[in-house]
Structures are given as C-alpha cells and as structure tokens.
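INFO  loader      accepted 1 record
INFO  loader      residues=435
INFO  predictor   begin
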Amino acid sequence: MRLKARFAGPLTGAARPPGDKSISHRALIMGALAEGETRIQCLLEGEDVRHTAQAVRLLGARVEQGSDGRWIVTGAGGFNQPSETIDCGNSGTAARLLIGATASYKLSARFDGDASLRKRPMNRVIAPLSQMGARFDGKQNCLPLIVHGGALKGITYRSPVSSAQVKSAVLLAGLHAEGETVHVEPERSRDHTERMLGVFGANIDQVEIDGALCPRVRASKLRGTDIYVPGDPSSAAFPVAAALIVGKSDVRIEDVLVNPLRLGFFETLLEMGANVSYEERRDPIGEPIANMVVKSSKLRGANPPPRRAPAMIDEFPILAAVAAFAEGETRITGAAELRVKESDRITLMVDGLRACGVDAEELPDGLVVNGRGPKSVRGGAEIRTLGDHRVAMSFLVLGLASKEPVIVDDADMIATSFPGFATFMQGLGADITAL
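INFO  predictor   done
INFO  writer      dumping tokens
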C-alpha cells in the first residue's frame, strides 16, 4: 500500500500512541516463562508482537485475549520443545530475546524470519550464549538457525555493542543458568528487561564494574503478575515531530513512557529549541509515564553526542526528517547500528531527503543534514522504503510540512510497530491518504 502525505494546516488535539513495543515483547516472554497467570493491559497489537505471542504459544504457554481487552498469558514456569519452526517475522527483538530465553532449557528450537530479518546479525547473541554453553546450527550467523539449549553456566559478558536486545538475551538465559550472569556494555542501553524481571520476582540486582552499574541475574523462578503497557515513545516521536514542524500546531500526546533511557530523541529536540513539555508525571508500574505537550517551534541544528545513540537509536530516522526543517547543520554520529536494522536506514534516509530537495550526506556511522528552516523542504518525491516502517513514517511526517506531497512506496510494514498510524495522525488533522 502506498501512502501520500501533504500539508493541510496545523495539528491539534490529544491522542494516546499504541502500547510500547519493547515492553509488550518482554511482557509476553516473561509471562510465558513465569508460573501462573500474567494479565497485560494495553499490549501493542502490531505484527511484531503477534509473532512473539505465537512463539511463546509454540513454547508451551497459553496466550489469549480476554473480553476486557487484556491479554492473558498462562505460563508453566519455563519453555517446552516446540513442535515447529518459530517464525519471528520482521522482529529482531522477538528473535534475539526468544533465542536467549530458550537457550537455558534442554530443548532444540529452530528460529526463522522474513527476508529482512534473515539479513540481520545474530552472532551478537550467539557469541555470549555459546560462552554460556548453548549450541547453534546455522549458516553465516543469521536466521534460520537452531538453538540447542540447557545446562548453561553464568558468565560476565562484555558486549562490544550497546544493545538492549543483546543484554536481554543474556539476562534471560541467565535465569536458568548455574551461578550468576552479569552483562557489561559500552553505554547503558534501555533497561526494560531489568525492570520487568524485578516485577516478575527474579533475583536481579546491579554490580559496579569499571565505574558503571551493570545488571546481574541469578537462577530465578518468575511469578505471573499484572503488567500495564504505557504508550510507546518511539511511536510518540512521529506526532511530536509533526507538531513541531507544521506551523501553529498544538497537540498533547498522552500516557507516554518517559524512561530516561528512551528519551534521547526528545532531549535532542529540546536542544534544537523545541517547545515540548511533560505533564502529569507518574510511576504506577515501575516505569515512568507522562503526557507530552508539543507546540510548533523554530528549530536549530544540533549535534547529539554519540553516547546518546542507545537512547534514541529507533528515532534517528525521524530526527533526520525534523532536521531538514531546522536552521543549520545537524550531525548524527555513533549510529552505525542503523545500517543493520530493518534496512540500511542511513542510506535510505539520505537518499529520500535528497529526493525531497534536502542537503544531506552519509557518514559511516550516521548522517549530516543541512537544514534551511521552516517551509524550506520541497518534497514532491516518491520514497523508496524497502519496507522499513520507521523510514516510511518519517517521510510521511516530512510530507506534512513540505511544499509538495510526499509518497512512500510501501506502508504495509508500519503495522509492525504502529498499527493505525494514518488514522491516528488524521485524528490530529494530518492529511495522509492511501493511493
């Protein structure tokens, strides 16, 4: 499906984004590993999360949606031998976290995914899990692969990359390993796994290594619990960005997760002069939540520090789109991870920006955007997305403030993270239509 976005005046009103994808994946997996029942409210019902739900069913959990909309996961205290291949679709989170969780049980499980996921590197989880005692069959350290698990030993793993997916795989494997498992990374990545393991009753704490606090887990039994999934800040980034660049906009995005390790994009926006504020901060679930109030703003270029990259890795595409409307240079570095996401997001964003008349160039680990201020972006292009949901949404937002409409060639994959995106944006006054 192709979508077209064009300028239609200011955005106004209030809306809640879909449930956080990271927390949704983890709630399903930990609920399946736990003993008893886990009730999940506001689970993201996108394609990626549905693949995780089907995966934990194959591994022995019962997953169903109740009449009140809550998802109910009944676990048996661990995973069982699956009867068929576990299809992770397009989701790297599902694949890497599930590989880690299954590795600690005496079973063999075959994992696969779509053409895009088959290209994404799995050696980053294969390496630590192999050190713990798991065995793998596969080619070129990519999917499809078979995990042979059981009898793991805890390790202290120094990851060469800051990745919440790698950290989560290691910690989930450590739940059933002998001894203690510690994960060390260059910069601290999002900590949803550590927080949620504590909610499920895991034996988890932190230990200081090289001056940094690192998560440590010991063998644990998880207990079913109630989980509330707040709005996804990575999804909220799109209406927030749109409100900033479309003149006279004033919107409120409600019930958003504001975990400090997920706010790198919003910190950068504030440095660019964005009028973004937080209201009604609260912390009912071990994860901070707030409403975000956003008004159109005159923005300037920024150079976010590379150490911030783990806190905004999913938001770099939309940051690049916003930077096109800022005054001056925005230089994004420390984001080489973008080249091995659902696509090479660096190349796709630079190609698309140039097609819309924006001065942009690639860097090995990022990109440079030379913005010329509001109303400076020509647009008028059809963007090649290679099925990447965040690239597609970023250019649709850009089209809301450009001189000419912008078309994305494939919007179907937006449903992996933001089902109903076009309808959501239309509710705030955006002109996004199917072709």
